[in-house]
Design brief:
Number of domains: 2
Largest sheet: 7 strands, mixed
Radius of gyration: 22 Å
CATH superfamily of the largest domain: FAD/NAD(P)-binding domain
Order of helices and strands: EHEHEEHEEEEEEEHEHEEEEEEEEEEHH
CATH architecture of the largest domain: 3-Layer(bba) Sandwich
CATH topology of the largest domain: FAD/NAD(P)-binding domain
Distance between the termini: 36 Å
Number of helices: 7
Oligomer: single chain
CATH class of the largest domain: Alpha Beta
Helix content: 10-25%
Length: 330
């Protein structure tokens, strides 16, 4: 056939997908990356490029956008073909290769590696009358540039890691930061909670938000309600909502993959129940898995090495160390 057949198509250009591209280069595989977003980096670039990431081995902390830039540079080791703003729709096995149809065209590959994270995502919206009018103005579900909040009075909603991370990062940028959570206890990592308690961020727990007060363009105050129904009005310039995301794997759910809730089930080789289709990162699950970027990075060498052995049964699953490979290249 005249169409170009790749060794592996990586569906998802977030951190796991980018690292998979690099590792596929180490195993001498021909790579194509497909992602539905307009840029690589997944949620890191779409939702919080200016937020620090702390749980990457060997890197005490790094801005999400800098981590993505490093991963993009690393991913180029395989010289991947990159297709952005393209959504995988259907897959069909023809002989020894897959025919992958997207919303734009058709691709061909011997294997497929799913690294699409939680899939397509939309932020959980603030359920307060009139909130939609302020979206993208003074009500925010993502932070593209932290300097947009310089010297502002910022009100953060949420109790997880993102809410606490933003509150702490804004502490030295905004004039005042207040975090509000409807429960007494935060759900973020214990160390992050301790840092918050030792910071100058104002903490309002357990409080729910009742009302946004403003002119339809700019929020001027928020009205919050405590557990005893007492109300408090707090002046604000910006409100940042961190209630998590509503995620869906979309068309992938129609591929016949074995699912557990919203995750694809894989075995110890990162194989799905469909021969030739693998998964790594937050998109997949196996016994006792913790979903972190670091875990996705760890799953990549396993997935790519078994993909290599699937394509070429004579190759070794256990590769040389990367230092040995680069020394050989020199």
């Amino acid at each position: 056939m005249e169409e170009e057949v790749y060794d592996v198509i990586i569906i998802g250009g977030g951190p796991t997908g980018l690292f998979a591209s690099f590792y596929a280069g180490l195993r001498d595989l021909k790579v194509k990356i497909i992602d539905s977003l307009p840029q690589l980096g997944g949620q890191l670039m779409e939702l919080y490029p200016d937020k620090y990431i702390y749980d990457i081995g060997g890197i005490p902390k790094i801005l999400a956008k800098d981590l993505v830039a490093n991963l993009e540079e690393q991913a180029r080791y395989s010289n991947p073909t990159i297709c952005l703003e393209e959504t995988a729709m259907e897959v069909e096995k023809r002989g020894d290769f897959f025919v992958l149809t997207t919303d734009k065209t058709v691709h061909y590959s011997k294997t497929i590696l799913l690294t699409s994270g939680v899939g397509a995502f939309q932020p959980r919206k603030l359920n307060v009358p009139g909130a939609a009018a302020y979206e993208g103005k003074s009500l925010h579900y993502k932070v593209k540039n932290i300097q947009d909040f310089k010297d502002s009075n910022v009100f953060v909603l949420g109790g997880g890691d993102s809410a606490l991370d933003w509150s702490l990062m804004l502490e030295d940028v905004a004039s005042k930061v207040t975090i509000c959570h409807r429960k007494e206890q935060f759900t973020a990592h214990e160390m992050t909670v301790q840092q918050l308690q030792n910071s100058k961020v104002h903490i309002k727990t357990p409080y729910g938000i009742k009302e946004l007060v403003g002119d339809g363009e700019t929020i001027r105050e928020v009205v919050i309600v405590g557990k005893d129904k007492e109300e408090e009005r707090i002046p604000v310039d910006h409100v940042i909502v961190n209630y998590g995301n509503i995620a869906s794997l979309g068309p992938l759910k129609q591929w016949g993959l074995e699912m557990q809730k919203n995750s694809i089930v894989v075995n110890e080789k990162m194989e799905t129940n469909i021969e030739g289709i693998y998964a790594a990162g937050d998109v997949c699950t196996h016994g006792g898995k913790v979903k972190l970027i670091a875990v996705g990075f760890g799953e990549v060498p396993n997935a790519i090495s078994h993909i290599k052995a699937f394509i070429d049964p004579k190759s070794r699953v256990q590769p040389m160390h990367s230092t040995s490979i680069f020394e050989t290249v020199k």
